[in-house]
Amino acid sequence: MSFTTGREHIDVSVVIGFRDWGLRRIRLAVESIQVSFGRFAGEVIISDYGSLDPKVNEELARELGCRYVYTPDAEVWSRSRALNAGFAISRGALLVSTDADMVFSPKSFEKIVGIAQRQPQAAFFLQCRDLPQEMDDEWVENNPGAWEELESNSQLRPRWGMGGMMAISRQGFFEIRGFDERFHTYGGEDLDFAQRARRAGYKTIWVNDSDVRMYHMWHPPTRAIVDQTEDGRNTVERNRDIVYNDPSFVRNYMQWSHRPEDAPPLVTVAICTHNRADLIGESIQSVLFQTMQDFEIVVIDDGGEDNTKEVLDGFGDERIRYFWQENAGISAARNLAAEKSRGIYTAVLDDDDIMHPRRLEWQVGGLVPGTVGNVGAFVNFDDTTGELNLIVSKIPSIETAMANGSAPGHSTWMIRTDVIRSLRYDETLTSGVDNNIMLRLLRSGLMLSHVGKAVTFRRMHSRQVTVLDTDRQLASASSALKFIQWRLNAGDLKNIANLAKENGEYPQTAPRETMLKDAELFLPDHLVNRDLVLAVKSGAPVPSNWDGHLVCAEFSVGTEEMPPVPMAIVKNATFKDIVSARQADLDFTVVAPTAGKEAAPNRLDQIELLLQSAGNVIAAQGLENKFILVKRDVSDEQENLPWKVQICDRGEVESAVDGDPEWMIFGEEYWESENAD
User: Is residue 397 part of a domain?
Assistant: First the structure.
């Protein structure tokens, strides 16, 4: 186990998370840990999560010679976030979490680090010993070195709650993305962390050594305070729901607030290319507009002679890493991608294919314990006509592969990078390399799952490898089938086929029509029209540089002092627009345009769009018999907020119009009434 950043080597980092906690308890905890490092280089990090008076805590940390990090504006206590904030500045090869009310015996961490270095693929836990009420922090301070008395008076806490000390390698912490930052207020994060480490393949080890002891200094229980409020009880129940009902092991992949600087990307999107500068740009855009942004893109140019690098440089994104090699073939290019990858997982993408915006979110969230990755379905699209064809492959297994030796679509794979490095693509092959490595993976006993979603869209055009190299593709498939069926007789093959049927050959999916309708929205710009509905905050600026046409408005209900609800739609949005929305950190939805309204909207079209949106608000909120007022917001200096929309009852209409005759009134009941006079 090693960790090097060019700074001083640290064997172990111990993080204590707290908020408005007693200084004496913190001092006792830190000093006991520092003494117990022994021959190892260790650091203690105090993570102060929003204390009212951080200065005294920072001064204590300085006095004790430990590191200190403060998280301001933390509305609620979250032990998960506090610990992650500490680990974000840590330097240790072994990462340890504990609490500010624990004291450790003098050899504890020297022993723990030694054990962990011998077993890097494990997570370590220490059973807590609770001290009686009379042995609080004041008693511990007044009785230094009274370890025999602490031992004889303490009571061993059950292991169910995982104790109060957890240790895992730095790599293991990165693989599961730390403590789940959804947890807050009280409880569950430690048990959840332990479960996830186990699902990720880290063996659970309880340290059982007479020289390693952790004692809990008595104080009034905080859980009792939390249980006194309904909000507190609801939060505890929500935490329990995460622990018992979320089977995933990688968390915080949509947003990791306290990410260590040296944390590797979760996923490397690996693209190998050769003279496809005219196509690769759209593939890159489909990666950049992913909902899950914890990735890097590694592009291997296999002896290309076009302007691919110029296209990639044009994106100005440091996550795109380009490597050129002399032409050596697709297998050599994919092996180089694996060597250059920094991601824990590798998602394969061909240089002419498109990723669904939620591909990485679906595949990371769909990781199953005991597997090394997963695959998905894909949609073939004709690059001229836009015709779609959904392909749902079988669940990858040795049983399903026996029928014809085929593999799931290569551009749907997301597999651990270390597995790809170990197996390597066969560089003696020029075609069918994906079948070959997949069958070797399955024959080695490794397992994959299937997410049951169309994760990529495969471009059908005249320059595809499958079109230009059909004979070699067929020959490679035949060779792969012979490989996987080697030394199996007809009876063996029949039994394997029956087993595949019993276990279920195909994944569960949404209806075919639903998957194809979704795919239509994310085809290349020359094949589809789409609108981008942006979720914006009231008063917040909306970017104005779009390829499509921006229509903005602010909706308000009634004439009361209610905050307006903003609306922004980019009509006829391009791939570039979707990337821009993602880079601006805007939530958005991609929708099909209104029938017959594909062109840039004129003023009447914009009003029609606003009325449709207002109608949706009225229906959603049950606002029957309401009227809609619309006006051009000429007073607003923001160019991208040109409309105001107000949903009113009859009396409010009169008041609004009397104050501003520029309002346009919509609602048949109003114009049929005497008010229209």
Answer: yes
Average pLDDT of span 521-544: 88
What pLDDT digit, counting tens, does each position of 433-472 carry? 999 999 999 989 999 999 999 999 999 977 665 555 556 6
CA distance linking residue 218 with residue 130, whole number of Å: 7
Closest CA to 282 of 574, 662, 591: 574
CA distances from 516 to 253, 411, 434, 459, 469 (A): 27, 18, 25, 15, 28
Q: Rounded CA gap, 625 and 627, in Å? A: 7
In sequence order, which ranges of 47-200 are alpha helices (DSSP H)?
Answer: 54-64, 79-87, 108-118, 137-142, 147-153, 170-176, 189-199
* pLDDT confidence of residue 609: 74
Closest CA to 18 of 79, 64, 67, 87: 79
Helical ranges in 259-358 per DSSP H: 277-288, 308-313, 330-340
User: Is-contact 458 382, C-beta < 8 A?
Assistant: no
- Integer Cα distance of 113 and 269 in angstroms: 35
653: in domain: yes
Tokens of 103: 């004291």
In DSSP terms, 666 is beta-bridged to 628
Evaluate whether residue 48 is within a structural domain: yes
* Tens-digit pLDDT profile for residues 145-188: 999 999 999 999 987 767 689 999 999 999 999 999 999 887 79
Q: Look at the chain and report how many structural domains it folds into.
A: 3
Which structural domain range is residue 370 located in? 267-518
